[in-house]
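Retro notes (design track)

What went well: tokenization of the new backbones is finally stable.
What didn't: we kept losing track of which sequence belonged to which structure.
Fix going forward: every design gets posted as structure first, then sequence, in one message. First example under the new rule, 84 residues:
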């Protein structure tokens, strides 16, 4: 998600069950910045440019992220897997 509006970001923090003040303090202190940088680097190396990103059998899924199309993609992977 991209939250450029402070009010929108605040709502997202509250929806996640986090304390907005403590979350802001942690952000200002740079808490977890190394993990965030590692996650971003890993995502970029995997070809992820936005979320949600879905991987099926170690390959990025580019289809519609809805139950039907995802189930079809899973079924296709299972059909081509040995022993399936």
């Amino acid at each position: 998600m991209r939250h450029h509006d402070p009010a929108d970001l605040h709502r997202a923090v509250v929806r996640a069950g986090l304390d907005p003040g403590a979350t802001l303090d942690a952000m200002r202190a740079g808490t977890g910045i190394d993990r965030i940088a590692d996650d971003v680097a890993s995502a970029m190396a995997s070809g992820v440019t936005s979320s949600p990103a879905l991987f099926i059998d170690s390959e990025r899924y580019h289809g519609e992220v809805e139950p039907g199309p995802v189930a079809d993609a899973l079924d296709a992977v299972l059909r081509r897997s040995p022993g399936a």
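Added context from the reviewer: The chain has a mean pLDDT of 85.
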